[in-house]
Amino acid sequence: xxxxxxxxxxxxxxxxxxxxxANHFEIKLNTGNDFYRIAVNVRSQDGSMLMTFxxxxxxxxxxxxxxxxxxxxxxxxxxDPAKRKQFGLDFLRRNxxxxxxxxxILPNNAPGLDNDLEEKLxxxxxxxxxxxxxxxxxxxxxxxxxxxxxKYFPExxxxxxHDIHLNQGNPTGSFDKDNGVFQDGGILIHFPGLNRWxxxxxxxxxxxxxxxxxxxxxxxITGHRIVGDTGTGGEPSGETDVDGDVVIVGALVNPKGNExxxxxxxxxNTTDEDISLAGWQLVDRTRKExxxxxxxxxxxxxLEILIPASSNFVxxxxxxxxSLLNVQGIKTSGVQYTKExxxxxxxxxxx
Length: 351
Known about the structure:
Blueprint: E1 6-18, E2 24-30, E3 35-41, E4 50-55, H1 61-69, E5 74-77, H2 81-87, E6 104-106, H3 117-130, E7 135-143, E8 160-162, E9 186-191, E10 196-204, E11 210-211, E12 214-215, E13 246-252, E14 264-269, E15 275-276, E16 281-283, E17 289-291, E18 296-297, E19 302-306, E20 319-325, E21 331-338, H4 339-342, E22 349-350
Parallel strand pairs: 3-8
Antiparallel strand pairs: 1-2, 1-5, 1-7, 2-3, 4-6, 4-10, 7-8, 7-9, 9-10, 11-12, 13-14, 13-22, 14-19, 15-18, 16-17, 16-20, 20-21
């Protein structure tokens, strides 16, 4: 069914606290016109720890588009499918993490320094508060507002945002109704004086197909987990082909002169066997596909995929994403590049 009220809240950090149940870190956000609570999961209801990706120099093609579309702080409804596809977070389809093994399992709080989610969140939020021009971009589900006092920040009304985490891949059960695409939760922070972004992305361990290695494969329409063979009792095993046998290592997105028919994507076979790519696909930022036909990539070799002028698949010069899907439609590799990386004509971007 997916989330019903997907929103983007933009504002400045006022203060934060750990909820008494220690399952959420609560953020008081000032949008300039009002205050809202951002409820960030830092532990699962069953007590298990979350998968965490923190990057204090986050570079992604989405960042430039957010600044252009949302120049002012406020509350923005991005729930309709077109806005989700254009601006919604999607860890998988926007290649926001790249290799999901970069996500580490962290406790909500623990003895020691800089080793838990409370400390990671507090450190970044305090940095944003020290910069008067820093802006927090919080993505998630807006809950129905009431005129009651907020239960954690009683000086403000009961209004805010939750589901600040991956919202796809949930197994069959209590939370699979929340699965969807381009509706993941997360926190991005823009520091304009440094021309830099930071990001915190969170996910429940149960949302992944496998944890060692970490893999995530979901349906492009429903966001439900793509599973392999059923196990005992007919239950899905959750296992799929391991990512990374064939990977994207480079792309020429801005050829010199007339670009038509000159753009290309460079693949590498990381295995010791030849692999047929017949029926594989490249997918761009807008989910346009390019079907690879009658191609084979040799063991430990590379292959250039030239994109014909007639293709709808586009490597835009203002930033984009490239995903490689195998013949089963499962992503084996994904990259993204920024407008800054694409500005030099004739140069290959390496990943």
